[in-house]
Write a structure and sequence with these properties.
Layout (H helix, E strand, L loop, with lengths): L8 E2 L17 E2 L8 H9 L4 E4 L18 E4 L6 H10 L4 H11 L2
Parallel strand pairs: 3-4
Antiparallel strand pairs: 1-2
Length: 109
């Protein structure tokens, strides 16, 4: 059966600016998971994802996708509606729990 897991990948192995590498099997990204096959769902569940940071805007969210969560905790990142919101988000990026966890546990190998 053809996988419908869109743009899913592990960021592990990518080099950082200081010459180290992002740990493997810790930090993933993907597109929509609306039409996943059962095999796709089983694969994602097998990863035991702890935190999911959803960067989509409200208009991009699909009601059906909200019914199934593949992570223990989901963080919906606030919508940026103007430049002051964008600047605030940049200033507070590393203070959000989701981002701190990604930085602390995922980034450096």
């Amino acid at each position: 059966m053809k996988s419908e897991l869109i743009n899913f990948r592990d960021f592990g192995g990518y080099p950082t600016q200081d010459g180290r590498f992002i740990k493997e099997a810790i930090f993933f990204r993907c597109g929509s998971y609306r039409d996943l096959t059962e095999e796709d769902r089983d694969y994602i569940r097998s990863l035991n994802i702890q935190n999911l940071c959803d960067y989509r805007e409200v208009s991009e969210l699909d009601r059906d996708e909200l019914r199934e969560t593949f992570a223990k905790k989901v963080y919906t990142i606030s919508k940026i509606s103007n430049i002051s919101e964008a600047l605030k988000m940049i200033r507070t990026f590393h203070t959000r729990p989701c981002h701190r966890k990604i930085w602390k546990f995922s980034i450096l190998n």
